[in-house]
Amino acid sequence: MGIVVIAIDRRKEIILERELDFANAIGSAVVEKPRVSFWMIMMPPLFIYFIYRMKKYKEGRIKFDEEFMAARRRAMEAALEAVETGAGPDIDRVVQQSELADTFAKPYASWVRVLVEYYMDLLSAAGENFETLVRSAYHNRTNYLLSLNRLGLVEKEFFAALKPHLVAIEGAAEIITTIETQSQHLRRRFAEQIFA
Q1: Are 141 and 189 in contact (CB under 8 A)?
Q2: CA distance 10 to 23
Q3: How far apart are CA 176 and CA 30, in angstroms?
Q4: Cα(125)–Cα(3) distance, rounded to whole angstroms?
Q5: Which of 9, 24, 95, 104 could serve as 100's disulfide partner, Cβ 3.0–4.6 Å?
Q6: Greater model confidence, 37 or 161
Q7: Where are the domains of the chain?
Q8: Residue 19 to residue 148: CA distance in whole angstroms
């Protein structure tokens, strides 16, 4: 059985679907889900409060996913354009679209560059699902983990640039640490599943 080559637009969708799954997994670690207790069922006012908290949780998760995916979607568009035209990716345009302060532009651009290169690898690969795209692009677990580790490193550098500016926001440092830890864990797990 040969490798199936699908249209580049479908490869883009597959990659973004996996990134959204990744965002959902990170979001579930970052945004705390309210739990039902025995007392909530016995006392209707408490249950109404639980429903309110659950609604806020769902809104928070949706907002987290949207924010998490915004930069990834812009990076994907730059990668897609680069693969289709054969020109280098326009990293500066992606950085400008982010509307970040100049202080963060350099670490953000480094992260975007590595993310775009990762997407370009996958967009240029042959396969019919995410797993076969990764196997086609990286050939073995070591190569894939090296790419993921490089991505993780530039993410950490970007987060390190952000942290001093977020000290006034309660829990921001813990959230960044959770994102870093969960990202590393999930990426390693994905790599082990793909190259099992």
Answers
A1: no
A2: 20
A3: 9
A4: 10
A5: 104
A6: 161
A7: 8-32+72-194
A8: 13
Predicted confidence (pLDDT) per residue in 96-147, tens digit: 998 888 888 899 999 999 999 999 999 999 999 999 999 999 999 999 999 9
- Closest Cα to residue 71, out of 157, 158, 145, 153? 158
Residues 6+ apart with CB under 8 A from 101: none
Digit-coded pLDDT (tens) for 55-88: 776 777 777 778 888 999 999 999 999 999 999 9
The three-state DSSP-derived secondary structure of the chain is CCCCECCHHHHHHHHHHHHHHHHHHHHHHHCCCCCCCHHHHHCHHHHHHHHHHHHHHHHHHHHHHHHHHHHHHHHHHHHHHHHHHCCCCCHHHHHHHHCCCHHHHHHHHHHHHHHHHHHHHHHCCCECCHHHHHHHHHCCHHHHHHHHHHHHHHHHHHHHHHHHHHCCCCCHHHHHHHHHHHHHHHHHHHHHHHCC
Q: What is the pLDDT of residue 174?
A: 87
Do the beta carbons of residue 79 and residue 119 sit within 8 Å? Answer: yes
**Residue 137 in contact with residue 125, Cβ under 8 Å?**
yes
Which residue is associated with the tokens 């990762």?
118
What is this structure's pTM?
0.84
Q: Which two tokens stand for residue 147?
A: 């790419």
Q: How many CB atoms lie within 10 A of CB 10?
A: 10
